[in-house]
Design a protein that fits this description.
The mean pLDDT is 90. The protein has 13 helices and nine strands. α1 runs parallel beside α5, α8 (238-245) packs across α9 (249-260) and α10 (264-282) packs across α12. With 330 residues, it is of the alpha/beta class. A seven-stranded mixed beta sheet has the order 3-2-1-4-5-9-8, with helices on both faces.
Length: 330
C-alpha cells in the first residue's frame, strides 16, 4: 500500500489506564481510510501509518505496534487517548512530559481525546491557549491549569499545532479530522459513511480549516509557529518573529514562506481569524470587541481580513454558525 507515495505517521500514546477501545478504534479507522483511498483510486492520498507507543523496561517509550512494520519513526501526529477512570495523576503525566514536548518541538501535531488534554496541559503547551475536554473534567482542568482557556462546549477544537476534543467517544471525531487533514474531505466523508458515524467536519466552519505545515524540518520557523499559536499572533512584527527565529529579517522571510507556504503576515491573519471564528460562534461579544480581542485596533481592517480568509462578513458568519445565546448577537 505504501507504494502510493507519501506516508503520514500517526502515533497513539498507550499510557496506563488508556481507553483501549479508542486505541484500537482509531487504528481501525485509519485502516478503513487507507482502504477507502485504495478502493476509490485516490493514488495521491498519503498512506496513514499507525504506531502505538508505550512504556517498556525502565519506562522508556517504544513502538509496540506498527501498521506498516517499517523501521524508523518520526510521528507527524501524536494522539493521547481518553481514560475510562479519571483524570491522569501528576506522576503519570510527568512520565510522558519530555517525550510529548520533544515530539511537539519536532513538528508533531498533538491531539487529545477527553482527559488526554491533561497530558498536553502538563507540558505547558496550552498556556494562554484554548482547549476543550469532557464536561465532567472541565472545571478540574481549569483549576489545575488556570492559564488554559477551557471551552468545554466544543466537541473538537483545532488550534494549529494542537487538537483537543471533548467526549469519551470523540476519538471518532479526532480520527476523521485527521483523515480530512491528510487525505482530504472526500475520503473523510467516505470513511465516516462506511463506519456509520457522524462526521463533524461535514459542517466545517470556514475559519477552522487552517492546517499549518509543521513537518517542514526548519526548526527556526517551527519555533516561530509555536510562538504565534501560543500568543494568538497578537502584537507581533516581522522583526519580533525574526528575533524569535534567531535570523536576519530577509532570511527569515524567505525561510518562513518556503517552510509554510505563507508570508508571515498571511499566517498571522489565519491564526487571528481562527480565534475570531470561535468567539463569533460561542460568545456574545460585539464585532468590535472581537476585533480588539484578536489583535486588530481597526474593526474595519478586521472585517476585510475576516472576509478575505473565510469568504463571509463576521456578522454573516455569526448568523450561520453561532451556537446558543451567541446567535442572538448580530
Amino acid at each position: 500500500m505504501d507504494a502510493r507515495g507519501e506516508i503520514v505517521e500517526i502515533g497513539i500514546l498507550v499510557y496506563p489506564g488508556a481507553q483501549m477501545a479508542a486505541v484500537y478504534g482509531l487504528t481501525d479507522l485509519f485502516a478503513v481510510a487507507n482502504r477507502m483511498a485504495q478502493d476509490l483510486g485516490a493514488k495521491e492520498a498519503p498512506v496513514l501509518r499507525v504506531c502505538h507507543w508505550s512504556e517498556q523496561d525502565g519506562h522508556a517509550l517504544a513502538v509496540t505496534y506498527d501498521s506498516l512494520t517499517r523501521e524508523g519513526y518520526q510521528p507527524r501526529v501524536m494522539i493521547i487517548p481518553p481514560s475510562l477512570t479519571q483524570a491522569p495523576t501528576p506522576e503519570l503525566m510527568a512520565r510522558f512530559r519530555d517525550d510529548l514536548r520533544q515530539w511537539h518541538a519536532e513538528g508533531a501535531l498533538l491531539a487529545s481525546v477527553c482527559v488526554g488534554v491533561f497530558f498536553i496541559a502538563a507540558c505547558g503547551l496550552l498556556d494562554g491557549r484554548s482547549a476543550t475536554t469532557h464536561w465532567n473534567f472541565a472545571q478540574s482542568l481549569a483549576e489545575q491549569y488556570p492559564r488554559v482557556k477551557v471551552e468545554a462546549n466544543l466537541p473538537v477544537l483545532v488550534d494549529g499545532d494542537i487538537m483537543t476534543s471533548a467526549g469519551l467517544m470523540a476519538w471518532t471525531d479526532v480520527g476523521l479530522k485527521l483523515v480530512e487533514r491528510f487525505q482530504g474531505a472526500t475520503l473523510a466523508a467516505e470513511t465516516a459513511r462506511f463506519l456509520a458515524v457522524d462526521h463533524v467536519a461535514v459542517q466545517a466552519r470556514p475559519g477552522s480549516l487552517f492546517a499549518p505545515r509543521l513537518d517542514h524540518g526548519d526548526e527556526a520557523v517551527l519555533k516561530v509557529q509555536h510562538w504565534l499559536q501560543s500568543t494568538g499572533a497578537r502584537d507581533v512584527s516581522i522583526g519580533a518573529m525574526a528575533d524569535c527565529a534567531g535570523l536576519e529579517e530577509r532570511t527569515f522571510l524567505r525561510r518562513f514562506r518556503s517552510a509554510t507556504g505563507l508570508k508571515p503576515t498571511e499566517y498571522c491573519q489565519q491564526v487571528r481569524v481562527g480565534r475570531a471564528c470561535r468567539m463569533l460562534e460561542f460568545t456574545r461579544r460585539s464585532i468590535e470587541q472581537i476585533a480588539w480581542g484578536v489583535g486588530y485596533q481597526d474593526p474595519g481592517a478586521f472585517r476585510k481580513v475576516f472576509a478575505k480568509v473565510t469568504g463571509l462578513a463576521p456578522s454573516d458568519y455569526r448568523r450561520r454558525f453561532a451556537v446558543g445565546e451567541a446567535a442572538a448577537q448580530g
